[in-house]
Design goal:
The chain is α+β, with helices and mostly antiparallel strands. It is built from four helices and six strands; from the N terminus they run αββαβββαβα. A hairpin with a 2-residue loop joins β1 and β2. The longest helix is centred in the N-terminal third of the chain and has 18 residues. This is Lipoprotein.
Length: 179
């Protein structure tokens, strides 16, 4: 019984940590990390940019961070304008299920899987609940434009305007320490 209690406490702690997850921050994706932005130059005026959030990051935030990264890449490359050539947002959904009475399982617990089950699945109660956990990744190819090219392109976006409007959301002002 003591072993079961230790396992239950460990599983409870994992669930608590998962429930307390905070949205992904706007930063480069580092090796071993699943969230953040990446960019790759494809040609002298063409880049691929991405932003990947976690399950606590709203789709709108992921898409805004992609737009922000596109603006930063444009300015860093010496261009004031850019246009999206391709752009999409993908959702990845897994399911967390709590279950009781799984055949061959003598306790309670949870696990992750990629298929949905509803309440009451399985013999003797089996699957009791299953909830979706969704995270988003936005990606795009951008084309950097000169001032003359931007004049003739109605979809052209001014990189500095994007930075001015979305940048504060991604880079909140630091809170000064109390003295």
């Amino acid at each position: 019984m003591a072993k079961f209690a230790k396992v239950s406490v460990a599983l409870g702690a994992i669930l608590l940590l998962a429930a307390c997850q905070t949205p992904a921050t706007y930063q480069p994706r580092t090796p071993g990390s699943n969230t953040g932005y990446t960019d790759e130059q494809l040609a002298h005026n063409r880049w691929r940019v991405t932003f990947t959030g976690n399950s606590a990051t709203r789709r709108e935030t992921v898409e805004s961070y992609l737009l922000l990264r596109a603006a930063e890449v444009s300015l860093k490359s010496g261009y004031r304008w850019f246009v999206f050539d391709t752009r999409d947002t993908e959702a990845q959904t897994t399911y967390q299920s709590d279950f009781v009475g799984w055949p061959g399982w003598r306790g309670r617990g949870w696990y992750w899987h990629s298929w949905p089950y509803g309440p009451g699945w399985g013999a003797g109660g089996g699957m009791e609940t299953s909830r979706p956990i969704t995270s988003y990744e936005a990606y795009a190819e951008i084309v950097l434009l000169t001032d003359d090219q931007a004049k003739n392109e109605p979809r052209a976006m001014n990189a500095q305007d994007v930075l001015d409007h979305i940048g504060p959301m991604a880079h909140p002002p630091s809170i000064p320490a109390h003295q």
